[in-house]
Amino acid sequence: MTERCRIVIVGGGHAGGRLAQLLSRGPDRVHVTLVGAEPIYPYERPPLSKGVLLGTSGLDDCVLWKPNDPVWERVETHLGVAVEDVDRVRKNIRLSDGKVIRYDRLVLATGSRVRGFPVQGSQLRGVFSLRSYADAQTVSKYFLASNRVAVVGGGFIGLEVAAAAAQRGIQPRVIEASDRLLSRLVPRLVADRLAETHLHAGVQLTYGAMVERFVSNGHGSLKRAVLSNGDAVDCSVAVVAVGVEPEISLAIGAGLEIDIGVITNEQLRTSDPNIFACGDIAAFWHPLYQRHIRLESWQNAEDHARILAAVLLGEEVTAPSVPFFWSDQYDLSLQIMGLPHLGTSTRRKPTASGSAILLHCDALERLVGATAIGPTALIGRELRKMRQLIASRAICNSVTLDGAELEVVAG
């Protein structure tokens, strides 16, 4: 790239914010504009369900752009406004405040939105979802005056909310529609270990039920949640954590190719050569797995920002990392490397007491993923080894794994 280039990033979340930061360190001929729907500068989301809910972290602990970073001088920002339309012919976007911005290269980094939960009473004060810093701040304030909270959904976010509530002396009750926690995400052995930890911390776990309605106290605030199994849960706060969906409405309106997300190649280019997609919305080609995948994680946002900055600046592009995800709850860390759901068999690697490491192998006995739970330092070391083995398509046997005897376990 030698001519002046106007790069417009739509989305002020982690992927978009990090990309703007990396591009701001490029040559002066690159002009970067970032448009964000939230009225605050880009920030990381993992602390929202951890430190922010615990009351130990604030916005300064989450923001991506630090003082004295060139991003402040080099990036034009439009915050608190939405993009209403993409005109691919004229190569411009139209904002909700009426402004029209031209682009040479457009990046869609619109992230995810919480999945709808249309039950009676969902509009009551005290019923929340958790997606933004403002959401987390409000829930944290409600925790101060609450002694019971209902958490709808036993996935990662729901469990982190429950852990934060329990650590603040509030009694949480998790309502999960499946017969166990994290039913589509981790093996039963890991889910059971996590459930034991939550029960020990005072969290109540209800399986095989859903919230049918929220009941008012007569003044517009939440009083209780009524479940499909007939139970009634007294609570002044309910956090609905039933998952998220990629925010692809803008991409659909622009006529881009869509499947599980916005389809891109390995370099995150969409079906329009001047438009790119990154972060949660991108269904990108992963060379290791030889398929399009879509990921929602801190690591994926970092990877995509790095890859796309190199592409847009004409620099050498490296391959995407082996996927990685983590969740911290109490003194436990749950970490996932690779894509365990591609495995057809699961084996347990011997580890120290209090931890478990499960290896996921495909039909050709190649290691495609690993799931670990235990103290952060211990399992972190082990999974760093697994990253290299997964990347090299290593065969999952005791020779590859330093002579360790592997135990076959049920998924």
Automatic annotation (TrEMBL):
InterPro entries: FAD-oxidoreductase/Apoptosis, FAD/NAD-bd_sf, FAD/NAD-binding_dom, FAD/NAD-linked_Rdtase_dimer_sf, Reductase_C. One of its GO terms (cellular component) is cytoplasm. GO terms for molecular function: oxidoreductase activity, acting on NAD(P)H. Residues 6-305 form the FAD/NAD(P)-binding domain. Residues 324-395 form the Reductase C-terminal domain. Keywords: FAD, Flavoprotein, Oxidoreductase. Its cofactor is FAD. Pfam families: Pyr_redox_2 (PF07992), Reductase_C (PF14759). This is FAD-dependent oxidoreductase.
